[in-house]
Amino acid sequence: MSEKLFETAVRTKMRFPFRGLVSVEDLYDLSVENLDTVFKTLNSQVKRVKEESLLDRQTQEDKVLTMQIEIVKYIVKVKLEEQESRLKAQDQRAKQQKILGILSSKQDEALQNKSIEELTKMLDELER
């Protein structure tokens, strides 16, 4: 469904209210907070249009506003998923570094616990 929304938005050169007007592509450059501002603006436009109508028919303007809201919602969802993914990856890297540090200290500890003869033998093997 989202592909059709984006295709329609691109074909109709749909613009969104944010510091003037921005295109669909520009929405991806906005922060989640700015996208929320766009959503609120669109939502208030929907409420205003609904209030002004005596009939319960969906006009072209209603359809466009509904599509714009769905596009903004989709982009926010994608951005939040990407942010969560980055945080998980960052957490995994931190855990990996911690494990590598502990492993290194245990290897050092094992080396320090070796006898003089074992260390000398290891050194001789490295020099060959």
Structure characterization notes:
The protein is mainly alpha-helical. It has one domain. The protein is built from five helices and two strands. The protein has helices at residues 2-11, 24-27, 32-52, 60-112, 116-127, and strands at 16-17, 21-22. A hairpin with a 3-residue loop joins strand 1 (16-17) and strand 2 (21-22). Helix 1 (2-11) packs across helix 4 (60-112) and helix 3 (32-52) packs antiparallel against helix 4 (60-112).
Features:
single chain, mainly alpha, 128 residues, 78% helix, two-stranded antiparallel sheet
Adjacency order of strands in the biggest sheet: 1-2
Q: Biggest sheet: strands, sense, closure?
A: 2 strands, antiparallel
Helix-residue proportion:
over 70%
Overall tally of domains: 1
The overall average pLDDT, rounded, is: 90
Strand pairing plus helix content: what structural class? mainly alpha
Q: Give the overall form.
A: rod-shaped
Can you tell me the residue ranges where pLDDT is under 50 for at least 5 consecutive residues? none
The total of helices stands at: 5
- The Cα radius of gyration reads 29 Å
Oligomeric state of the chains present here: single chain
Strand coverage percent: under 5%
Order of helices and strands: HEEHHHH
For the record, give the distance between the C-alpha atoms at the N and C termini, rounded to a whole number.
68 Å
Number of DSSP-assigned strands: 2
